[in-house]
Amino acid sequence: MKNMENMESFWEEVKGQIKKQLPDHSYRMWIDPVELMEYDSHSVQLAIPNNYYLNRLKNNYVPILKKELSKLGYDENVEIKFAIQSHKKSRSCEKDGVSGSYPAVPLVAKRPVQMKLPGINRFNNGRLLKKGFTFNDFVVGDNSNFAYSASLSLAQGRMGGSSILYLLANTGLGKSHLSQAVGHHIISNNQSSRVYYVTAEDFTNEMISSIRNNTIDRFKEKYREKCDVLILEDIHFLAGKNATQKELALTLDYLLDTEKKIIFSGCELPDDIPKLNEQLRSRLNLGLITKIDKPDFTTRVKILKKKSKEFGYNIPNHVTDYIAQELCDDVRQLESGLYGVAAKGHLLGYNIDIELAKSVLANMTNAKKRITIESIKKLICTEFSVSEQEIVSDSRKQRIVRPRQVAIYLSRRYTDHSIKKIGSCFNKYHATAIYSINAVEKEIKQKGVLSEQINYLSKKIETGKL
Question: Which residues pair with 288 in a beta bridge?
Answer without folding.
Answer: 165
